[in-house]
Amino acid sequence: MTYFKFELIHRSKKSRARVGRIHTPHGIIDTPNFVAVGTNGTVKALNNTMLHDIGLQLMFCNTYHMMLQPGTDIVRQAGGLHSFIQRKLPIITDSGGFQVFSLAYGSVADELKSRGTKKQGGCVLKITEEGVLFRSYRDGSKVLLTPESSIKAQKDLGADIIIPFDELPPYHIARDALKKSLDRTHRWEKRSLEAHLKNPQEQAMYAVVHGGIDPDLRKESCAILTELPFDGFAVGGSMGKTKDEMHTLLSLTLPLLPEDKPNHLLGIGDLPSIERSVPLGIDTFDSSYPTRAARHGILLTKQGPLNITKSEYATNFNSIEKGCLCPACHHFSLAYIHHLFKARELTCMSLATVHNLYFMVQLMEKYRKQIQEDLI
Amino acid sequence: MTYFKFELIHRSKKSRARVGRIHTPHGIIDTPNFVAVGTNGTVKALNNTMLHDIGLQLMFCNTYHMMLQPGTDIVRQAGGLHSFIQRKLPIITDSGGFQVFSLAYGSVADELKSRGTKKQGGCVLKITEEGVLFRSYRDGSKVLLTPESSIKAQKDLGADIIIPFDELPPYHIARDALKKSLDRTHRWEKRSLEAHLKNPQEQAMYAVVHGGIDPDLRKESCAILTELPFDGFAVGGSMGKTKDEMHTLLSLTLPLLPEDKPNHLLGIGDLPSIERSVPLGIDTFDSSYPTRAARHGILLTKQGPLNITKSEYATNFNSIEKGCLCPACHHFSLAYIHHLFKARELTCMSLATVHNLYFMVQLMEKYRKQIQEDLI
Q1: Which residues does the annotated region (RNA binding) include (chains A, B) (predicted)?
Q2: Would you tell me which CATH number, out of the four given (3.20.20.105, 2.30.30.240, 3.30.1300.10, 3.40.50.150), belongs to the domain A5-101+147-296?
Q3: Is residue B73 annotated as part of the catalytic site, yes or no?
């Protein structure tokens, strides 16, 4: 395949961190890098032109949401996701599995607080070898998602990188049930890969390593999936309650993955997690953290996050961060953005979002530079 | 005054319509023109860079809102409104009176439907010769607004064009009460002008012609206000229930105003009203119609407004309007914008808003061309 290539540019002498370059039909992704989440085909509060302008190289869209609205057939009619949402740079889609199951079980945080299952447990109706039957959150209709239908949907969407259909077991699960889920996930991933390879469409597919918080099952998952011709590896599933647990699991998992293929960490991209995972060899991180934080008035700076709604910013006429070249910092002051938040103007959401994403672009560039210099 | 000048470029041979150019310290306003409303120092869902890029020459900010949040003292500290909101082009502010009174009485539409007074009647506590005492909608504190304090606030804001403090009497008002209100408004406008002229600060001031739906009182208002050295004239107050009533009142009023000064129609800028008022000699119109309509999914086109949320647009991959050069039409399809509305993405608000405002920019350019050719 010449349309997808992972080029390893530099391995740190200090850790497993590496600088690389993922080549896709829609351009290059320098790694390590951050992936913005644009669930419905847009990063919330931005348009795709603005996203392009700040140099964000990879965008994550959610197949589950696009299936229910507008429907992947409409996206296909539009000529695929790039054409429909007018993005010229690379896109990655997930399988839809994560959303189906996380709506059923809630997030790990929900689960730990006993939320989630009670609230939305009715969404998943049945899990069989074939796939998962769930109820649409939009119109209540029954939808069957299988490895084949997920890949069909992802073919309609036409992202540069796609993900095989997997099950997301809850954090609280007995080992037997976890093992059973893992085996089925491996069969589902294999079926997904086969469906994909019948019609590659210049897309690349990353496997999803599962096994929950069980080290042996994680090892088993790596062993099985690395035997298959995937183009890269994503680490998914529950990785424990704490960042230490996650660090332990990733430290164990990543050395078992081939060095010449890219590694993605699914759904995790808060700043401390990125800082701890880059030295382990994670190449890309997707997370809605920077964009969701922005909409709540949390602005990322080199000195740490600041809460723009605090009254101390009402008369601060400096930009969010001195020297930042993002459109928000280039034009507007903390005092003005504070005012927009206080006045509940939608405009504040887009200014905060564009700043936080530009911060991530700069942060990842800094990591790449530090790895090149063997500093991390 | 050299910092403000109204240049009359062409009088139509067919009507009282004229093409002009208002020169201000922040640049030119070609007339007739549409004025975007940016109540809190931003057009809702856009930022001021985007507004600049589509060529919208005049923006309306509301003194009442800026007084309560962030406070005009903070805007003054920032170096005035242009600096605070980062707008390089001209700005007009109102006196705050309209908002105080309309929050008390509701809009004419509210009044006709017996809404408004019941809901928010408690806001205005007392009207005296000195001014109006009202309760802040933000924190419940009592605020006294007088001609002098309104002008002080507008000096802090530093817009290119400012408005004297006036009373907005309700539509349903006895003639005696209307006459009493009108006389007081004239005294308030005179006090405002005096306060302004003590410290002109390169600002221009437009008088506000009142008199409600009483032709004689409108004539009286013109006679009194045109004796004073105002830089332009705005038509305010209630103009009846129908567009015909408004047309009759404006037909009567405008010939009584000096031809060498600009005329503004306050708060009215729907398309039929603009079409009927341009031939009467109105030069500028401010209205939140195009931006509010946008946020509700109503997109303006040469073929009439369309409702983007209708299912027929789900698979329409054309732009909103063929040939439109706005950023929304340049990049995105009806189907995508329909999808963003259906998925409740904030992004749809800014795309719809930028399109509708660009439509207004183009529409007013068309009117200017037609007047130049004596077609209207």
Answers
A1: 267-273, 291-295
A2: 3.20.20.105
A3: no
